[in-house]
Amino acid sequence: MKSIYLTIFFVFLxxxxxxxxxxxxxxxxxxxxxxxxxxxxxxxxxxxxxxDSIDPKDSSRFIFFYDPPLYYGADYRIDRNYNVFYExxxxxxxxxxxxxQVGERWVVIVEDSSKWEESMVSxxxxxxxxxxxTLIKEIQHFQLWIRPDxxxxxxxxxxxxxxxxxxxxxxxxxxxxxxxxxxCRINGVTYGTVDVKDESTPIPSGFVLFQNYPNPFNPAxxxxxxxxxxxxxxxxxxxxxxxxxxxxxxxxxxxxEYEVEFNGSNLPxxxxxxxxxxxxxxxxxxxxxxx
Length: 291
Known about the structure:
Blueprint: H1 2-19, E1 35-39, E2 45-54, E3 61-65, E4 76-78, E5 83-86, E6 93-97, E7 105-112, E8 115-129, E9 132-146, E10 152-163, E11 167-172, E12 179-186, E13 189-192, E14 208-209, E15 220-227, E16 231-239, E17 244-253, E18 256-263, E19 270-278, E20 281-289
Protein name: Secretion system C-terminal sorting domain-containing protein
Pfam families: Por_Secre_tail
Domain Secretion system C-terminal sorting: 213-286
């Protein structure tokens, strides 16, 4: 009888604890200006939420980090079902399922018909991050493949820990040195050790043409680029035959980061090319209009 009462008590206590953490999105906070600094053997990593955008089709939120700048568009996409995808316009890796419970698995990416990756929540427990009590979710990552004899082999890749209100606090495996959160600034509050003091928009370190987002798009998309110095800039859109469709920019612009909208409502579905020229620099990207 005592064991029954103890079981009921612990179930009740667990329910009370979990009720304090009722927003799964807090395992992946992404407010504008949020900043994380990680230590690792190969050098520190810094990430800052520079901007975001909303996909009008399904209300998914695209998240963009300034450091490092990526050529594949958004760094992450967060949908309304608590799923987080990395490089959504490139690999579209399903890295996190923020509301997943212990033992729950999901496919991260399918590489081919015989090889894929999966993740699984291996533990959920309370702990301390920078002196603050919070909930920690532990996620293991595996690679699986089908052998010639049709049996499935599994290789452990790494384990990540997400902390409620902080996001990723660590990533470890058996080979590489761990990635550990040294400090962060979440929603204006600083925890741990953070080097970044100036919250103003940084000057781009180089000439970058980003992948348009969303992509594919219908009918409008945005093209973002950064300039390391003042330049005469042209941004033009062409069809696959090289015929100019529209000129989006044709003027001198100071150094900085810019975003231009392209509307293809009067164009047929297909692949289009956009070209950015700024002084001695030029870059080309492809985008897909899908109606």
